[in-house]
């Protein structure tokens, strides 16, 4: 066990050294990646507005006018709140509004009972919770001399919920697709990393591993740019690609701000 801890410490040191030049930019990169799926979705609705209206009215039973309001409200919310998240302005309210978009779209498009969609969106919500927790972290730093027990508790619980929800994407990866030796090996290491993130043990190292894993997975599996335009699943592959980027953003934010008070890593610091 001591040998494993020694190797993990060395790995963390190597990652810190390699990532030192990027360290000041990681929070900004993470925030942009978290909202990129909302920006892409807003652009998709704008460019395919007529098709979206037709689908909602024909297959989802939306009345005329309600379908227009639904789409316009979603687009405006996604664009404005994404800008607020990237600009670090009122991020807890912006993250809450984007969470509302995730829920309303799941209900509006009838995808809430799709297991893959459900698990992916849990991970996206986890990223949004990490954004909200980061806002409480910065607020506490601004008012370090004032009592902040309530906000500290909020931050701790948001970080716990955020990091637990982030790993659900990988559970979806394990449940779908055909199996191979490489896939089985990746699944084993990925699940170990997910458990470590959930309990907050070597959470930053585990999150970096998943970021690297998902980067390769996204390029190899969700390569929508090389898919024929006539392929019916192209839009779904593109959607999965940007959602995976958002979840990678949540993991990068975890690397930046840490797993929070309710974690093995933080408890070890106390002893």
Explain what the structure shows.
The chain has 271 residues and is mostly helical. The chain is built from 12 helices and no strands. It has helices spanning 2-19, 26-47, 49-58, 66-87, 91-108, 115-142, 149-166, 168-175, 181-199, 203-221, 234-257, 264-270. Helix 7 (149-166) packs antiparallel against helix 9. The protein is globular and about 60 Å long. 32% of the residues are buried.
Summarize the structure.
The chain has 271 residues and is an all-alpha fold.
Write down the overall geometry: globular
The major pleated sheet works out as:
none
User: DSSP helix count?
Assistant: 12
Termini separation (Å)?
19 Å
Secondary-structure-derived class: mainly alpha
Helix fraction bin: over 70%
Run of helices and strands: HHHHHHHHHHHH
> pLDDT below 50 for ≥5 consecutive residues: which ranges?
none
Structural Rg: 20 Å
Strand content: under 5%
Q: What's the multimeric state?
A: single chain
Q: Give the averaged pLDDT, no decimals.
A: 82
Keywords:
271 residues; mainly alpha; 12 helices
SSE arrangement:
Elements: H1 2-19, H2 26-47, H3 49-58, H4 66-87, H5 91-108, H6 115-142, H7 149-166, H8 168-175, H9 181-199, H10 203-221, H11 234-257, H12 264-270
Helix pairs in contact: 2-4, 2-11, 4-5, 5-6, 6-7, 6-8, 6-11, 7-9, 7-11, 8-9, 9-10, 10-11
């Amino acid at each position: 066990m001591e040998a494993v801890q020694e190797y993990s410490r060395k790995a963390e040191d190597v990652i810190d050294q390699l990532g030192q030049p990027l360290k000041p930019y990681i929070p900004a990169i993470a925030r942009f990646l978290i909202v990129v799926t909302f920006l892409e979705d807003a652009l998709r609705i704008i460019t395919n507005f007529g098709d979206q209206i037709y689908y909602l009215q024909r297959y989802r039973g939306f009345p005329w006018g309600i379908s227009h309001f639904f789409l316009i409200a979603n687009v405006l919310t996604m664009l404005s709140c994404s800008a607020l998240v990237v600009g670090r302005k009122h991020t807890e309210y912006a993250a809450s509004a984007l969470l509302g978009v995730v829920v309303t779209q799941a209900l509006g498009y009838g995808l809430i009972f799709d297991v893959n969609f459900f698990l992916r969106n849990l991970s996206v919500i986890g990223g949004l919770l990490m954004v909200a927790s980061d806002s409480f972290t910065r607020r506490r730093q601004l008012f370090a001399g004032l009592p902040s027990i309530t906000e500290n508790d909020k931050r701790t619980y948001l970080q716990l919920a955020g990091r637990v929800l982030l790993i659900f994407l990988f559970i979806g990866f394990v449940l779908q697709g055909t199996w191979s030796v490489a896939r089985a090996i990746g699944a084993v290491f990925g699940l170990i990393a997910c458990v470590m993130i959930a309990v907050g043990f070597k959470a930053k190292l585990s999150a970096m591993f998943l970021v690297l894993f998902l980067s390769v997975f996204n390029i190899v599996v969700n390569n929508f740019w090389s898919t024929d335009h006539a392929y019916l699943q192209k839009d779904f592959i593109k959607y999965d690609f940007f959602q995976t980027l958002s979840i990678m953003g949540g993991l990068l934010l975890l690397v930046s701000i840490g797993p929070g008070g309710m974690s093995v890593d933080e408890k070890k610091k106390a002893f």
